[in-house]
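Structure tokens please, single chain.
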Amino acid sequence: MSRILLIDDDPGIRDVVRFALAREGFEVEEAADGAAGLASAAARPPDLVLLDVMMPGPDGMEVCRRLRAKGRTPIIFLSSRDDEIDRVLGLELGGDDYVTKPFSPRELVARVRAVLRRTAPMEPEAPKALERGRLRLDLEGFRAFWDGAEVVLTATEFGLLRTLAERPAKVFSRDALMDGAYGTDHYVSDRTVDSHIRRIRAKFQAVGGAPVETAHGLGYKLSDCG
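Here you go.
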């Protein structure tokens, strides 16, 4: 649930905005002036600020300056003034959007969602390959290589080897190895896992590789592939 800080001296506007946002699942905290809004943001940083421009005390522009001096919390200005210079100034001060009063509550909610999406931290890109010494796994193409030579594996064999390679220092029990390669909704016997490991070893031995090491009494781990 995203938390929205609404700073506006008009209680009627606050009621409308609070109701519209709460109905869409947002948590809303209100402040009736700039000073209270700054105190609230400092005590509990919000995910986004809805900020009235014309307020007593520090106005919206000054509140924006102070918030921007401390972080990059998204800010949407709310204003009864539609002058282009006000819009430009608000955006140049660091505002992410500018909504003119009167506004449609539905449009405001859409603007809030759009700004939150636009300013959300990027998901780290998943690695496309996994390399451990002479072992290289192409995670997109499901291809395995040893010292540049391709080793053709089945999907299950690739899943087992990938599980080992993702945590090279870990010794996997057969159950843990099965969970990593098959998922927890499958049951595979220990003998089946051993058979897969034997085939993996045989295929890599054909190109001079040995990527899987047995931890006697415990299970398997990735060998030193250097």
